[in-house]
Specification:
22 helices, Rossmann fold, flat, 6-stranded mixed sheet, ATP hydrolysis activity
Length: about 625
């Protein structure tokens, strides 16, 4: 095992105890019992302090019919230093939709460093970014912050102009320049004053490198996948995903003091991810705080990790791999300290129990009792997040051929072919990753295999008994939001008991009362789990998964990874998550330039084949 690999068994196999348990076998002693009860009472108060804060009388009652508010409680900000570009927010609380997100938290983002913000789905990572961007949290006014949260509005503005116009200073200077030049031509104002002002404008434009702005904007757009022709199209011509890329381009171009990114790789293909990694490392002049589930991306771009859990923020130096190793070691140290303290208390208690009624040793026993009573309450180990397990079941065997494409060509219109002369074979033991630029035909390939598209030429074959488990975001978005999870399964797979439906949901981490919740109240990750449950209940021979890790937290991705590694059927995955693909797949097929070709890589290399493909792209940031 790699030294940096986190062993979850080491982390989660811990002892949890309290004072009452520690002293449960002691003999009667009125003074002793009274002191211990008081000590336990104080400990419980301390442990419950956070929960009590939730009951603050000024906290509004959550009304599901209204959009949730971000409620912030914060110490006053000292903004005397007008030069610092560090973002420091101390001693603050955040509540959202009636739920506590953070309590007594501190956040420091030092200028120029790149932070990865991680935590389970639903703990409030995106809420924290919004609270910063919307200035619900207070910090010095001179700091500029850009949060890439939603796609830009589509209108007649050209793509490249939408990026250029986000530089408000440059836009206003150019506008004023145009007005002054018009006045000078008409000779209606004081020419000397206008000329003086025009000189100032030119000086400021030079300072902000205005003459290189269009080249810089075009470079950013090209890196994010926009061709030169597409850069001249109006923004309304692009889909939501591409308008999100435009929003990201605006953020990179505007060079804010603090750049906030929420799952930026969800909207990008492999070439764009590689370009963004290089741009962030070599060109970005801002402080970065990024939420991402993509561990390879975090490893490649971050200098620090901030872990949001248990209503607080914990900071770690280094990238995600360093964080995982450090967190594991920190947990082990906590366990050792806890067990040492517990052993010391048990030693004292054993001495007291043995000698308290012995006339000669009673004074010593009383002394030990005083020592025990003066010890601070034994701090419980922080609760570990519950592990999630998925299970797709054992598929029945079917005879070949499973799924085949022979010399297939396809286009929605004859004059615009998307794929041509594709030959491809998926077997029961296949573990295949499909990669390539957005728009290259990956989803079209899946639809051909599923029979949803018919080839213009060539043959697509599949076994008549074949059951396919297909996952994509459309399936998640089309769930009936007014049904409970159990009701949905009953409508799709009738004839089983409620207990059986709940058991099936439990195999994918939908446990307890969650299975009885209306689907509209579930998070994106939980909805994905419901779809995975339906796939498992269909007993598939083959899994075809289109971006399955989007919207999942890291623990859920780990569970999905393990379940796919254990699955004995065929697997085809479209994804840009490098570590996920390298863990699941042993073949990489590249969809590009209307072709589907296998990437062979170097079998003797210790590097995963997907990482080898990514490195082979050799994409520069300029």
């Amino acid at each position: 095992m790699n030294a940096n690999t986190v062993n979850t068994n080491d982390i989660f196999n811990t002892k949890v105890s309290d004072i009452r348990w520690l002293n449960s076998n002691r003999g009667p002693n009125s003074i002793d019992e009274k002191k211990l009860k008081e000590q336990e009472k104080q400990m419980k108060k301390k442990l419950a302090k956070r929960e009590q804060r939730l009951m603050e009388k000024d906290l509004p009652v959550y009304d599901p019919s209204k959009p949730p508010e971000i409620i912030v409680n914060q110490m006053p900000v000292n903004s005397s230093d007008q030069k610092t570009k560090d973002l420091i927010i101390e001693n603050f609380d955040i509540h959202y939709g009636g739920k506590c997100i953070l309590m007594n938290a501190d956040l420091t983002l030092s200028f120029g460093r790149r932070y990865g913000l991680i935590g389970k789905n639903g703990v409030g990572k995106s809420t924290l970014l919004r609270a910063i961007a919307w200035r619900e949290l207070q910090y010095p006014e001179h700091l500029t912050v850009f949060n890439v949260e939603q796609e830009i509005q589509g209108d007649d503005t050209l793509a490249i102009d939408s990026v250029l116009e986000c530089d408000k200073v440059r836009t206003e200077l150019l506008k004023e320049e145009k007005e002054i030049l018009h006045k000078l031509e008409s000779k209606t104002d004081d020419e000397s004053k206008l000329s003086s002002r025009l000189k100032q404008i030119y000086q400021k434009l030079e300072e902000i490198e205005s003459d290189t702005a269009e080249t810089r904007a075009s470079t950013i757009l090209s890196g994010l996948g926009f061709s030169q022709e597409e850069q001249k199209l109006p923004t309304k011509a692009f889909s939501g995903g591409w308008r999100m890329r435009l929003s990201l381009a605006q953020a990179l171009f505007s060079r804010p003091d603090v750049l906030l990114l929420d799952e930026p790789t969800n909207m990008l293909d492999f070439p764009a991810v590689v370009w963004l990694e290089n741009y962030i490392k070599h060109e970005l002049r801002s402080t970065l705080c990024v939420v991402s589930h993509d561990r390879a991306f975090l490893d490649n771009v971050t200098t620090d990790i901030i872990h949001l859990h248990n209503y607080t923020l914990e900071s770690y130096r280094g990238n995600f791999t360093t964080f995982a190793a450090t967190k594991n070691e920190r947990r082990r140290n906590q366990i050792r300290e806890y067990e040492a303290q517990l052993q010391y208390r048990q030693h004292l208690q054993a001495f007291i129990d043995r000698w308290r009624y012995n006339a000669k040793r009673a004074p010593q026993a009383q002394s030990k009792l005083k020592i025990l009573e003066k010890l601070p309450p034994l701090q419980r180990l922080g609760e570990n997040e519950r592990l999630v397990y998925f299970k797709f079941g054992e598929p029945e065997r079917v005879t070949p051929p499973i799924m085949q494409m022979e010399d297939v060509s396809f286009g929605y219109v004859p004059e615009k072919i998307i794929l041509e002369h594709v030959t491809f074979d998926l077997q029961m033991d296949s573990k295949i990753a499909i990669v390539g630029p957005n728009g290259s035909g990956k989803t079209t390939l899946i639809n051909l295999l599923l029979g949803e598209n018919k080839p213009n030429s060539g043959i697509v074959r599949s076994n008549g008994r074949l059951k396919i488990g297909h996952f994509n975001q459309f399936h998640v978005d089309q769930l009936d939001l007014n049904m409970t999870c159990v009701q949905l399964l009953a409508s799709k797979f009738p004839g089983q008991t409620e207990e059986e439906y709940r058991r099936q949901l439990g195999r994918f981490g939908i446990t307890g009362q969650t299975g009885l919740q209306v689907i509209g109240t579930l998070s994106g990750g939980q909805k994905s789990r419901v779809v995975f449950t339906m796939i498992a209940m269909s007993h598939p021979h083959v899994l075809i998964l289109d971006e399955p890790s989007n919207h999942l937290d890291m623990d859920t991705i780990d569970a999905l990874t393990l379940s796919l590694k254990d699955f004995n059927g065929g697997i085809l995955v479209v994804s840009h998550d490098e570590k996920f693909l390298d863990a699941v797949c042993n073949e990489v097929w590249v969809c590009s330039n209307k072709k589907l070709t296998r990437f062979t890589g170097d079998d003797s290399s210790n590097t995963g084949i997907v990482k080898q493909y990514k490195e082979s792209l050799n994409i520069e940031y300029i």
